[in-house]
Amino acid sequence: MKIDSNRKLAAAVGVSHTSIGRWRKEFKDAPKGYDLAEWEEFMNAHYLDSTGERMSPESRELYNEKLRVSIRLLKLKHEVMTGQRVPADSLDRWLFNTATRLRTMLYQFMETEAPPKLDGLNEAQIRIIMREFADLLMSTLQDMTDAYYREIDVAA
């Protein structure tokens, strides 16, 4: 395509035709003709982008970083919404509640239930009672885990 007007030049470099005219007035070193390579070199030299705004390399890098972070946040939100990822605060709360409940059960067993149950029993009998309690702890953990997954499914 032969470039022979401001509109064609603007389309080729990705700006509005008014930007070309404004740059010709604003910059003394702006190309006079329609040579695409000259205009691209001019735009790079003056840090002009496709929006017509001036962007230094630092500003451009900050802008690109902002875009990368925004995209990452949108992906994370999408993963949470679709159930592919669990929010950290939700998981932290569940872990704290689970640990607290299991610790309470363990202390209660060791301080109040175990002494009378284990009094006078031999090693084999104590082992049976301890295994039953370990099974109770694991079944409680499984119940709490199932409840958490149901909570997540409802939220998603």
Q: How would you characterize this protein structure?
A:
The chain has 156 residues and is mostly helical. The protein is built from six helices and no strands. The longest helix has 33 residues, at 123-155. It folds into three domains: 1-55, no CATH class; 58-84; 86-155. α1 (6-13) packs across α2 (17-26). The model has no long low-confidence stretch (mean pLDDT 85).
* Number of helical stretches of at least 4 residues: 6
The dominant shape is rod-shaped
Describe the sheet with the most strands: none
**Oligomeric state of the chains in view:** single chain
User: Kindly state the mean pLDDT as a whole number?
Assistant: 85
Write the layout of secondary structure elements.
Layout: H1 6-13, H2 17-26, H3 36-45, H4 57-81, H5 88-118, H6 123-155
Helix pairs in contact: 1-2, 5-6
Short overview:
The chain contains six helices and no strands. By secondary structure, it is mostly helical. Helix 1 (6-13) crosses helix 2.
Key words describing this protein structure:
156 residues; mainly alpha; 3 domains
